[in-house]
Write a structure and sequence with these properties.
Blueprint lengths: L2 H48 L12
Amino acid sequence: MDIASVSMALSHISDMSQIGTAVLKRAMDTNEAMGKGLVQIMDSAMELSVNPDVGANIDLRI
C-alpha cells in the first residue's frame, strides 16, 4: 500500500468516527429529552394519584 492510499483510508476512518460520534450525541440528546418528558409525566401522574379529583370537573354558567 502506498502512502496516498493509507492517508485516504485514515481520513475515511476519521470521517466515519466523527459521523458516528455525531449520531451518538444526537441519540443521547434525544434520550435525555425523552427522560425529561417521562419525569414530567410521572410528576403529573403522582399529582393525580394524590389528588384524583383535581381537574376532573369544570363549573360552567351560561
